[in-house]
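[agent] plan:
  1. take the single chain provided in the ticket
  2. run structure prediction with default settings
  3. attach structure tokens to the ticket
  4. add a short note for the reviewer (M.T.)
[agent] executing step 1
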Amino acid sequence: MDPAPAEGRRVLVAVDEGDESAHALRWCLANFAARGDTVLLLYVRAPPPTYSVLDATGPAGYMFAEEATAAVDGYSKQVADAVVEKAQKLCALHGKDNGEMKVEVKVSVGDPRSVICEMVDKLGADVLVMGSHGYGLFKRALLGSVSDYCVRNANCPVLIVKS
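[agent] step 2 finished; step 3 output follows
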């Protein structure tokens, strides 16, 4: 009888709607994650929009803002569910979460850069795995880069998987 696997690493994989994060997860499962590891799938939803009372003109405007906020938040939850389901299917295809490796899912709300770095600490991640969108210098300067931010601010090693 084989002994129980030793407590492995906690590998946090940031997933989103992009092909880059799916590629990073596939690469991680095939080449990095090992028996005894826990793969933590993290999806960060954008916070629901907020409207001030000044945005609405009269009670009808305020009610419309509430409905719009609820619709956007509902859609955001649907997207999160779809992304998480896709990531879990990738794990199942690679034979993970079969007793040799655990898979856990976390969904959080906020700015992805700060939430990912906070979750590294909160979840005790030993390594953070992320995909890269491959933005050039100009786009990265304009849009910012979640992976660049995490490389500089996460309290663990960060593995960036290029497409």
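[agent] step 4 note for reviewer: Residues 119 and 125 are 8 Å apart (CA to CA).
[agent] ticket updated
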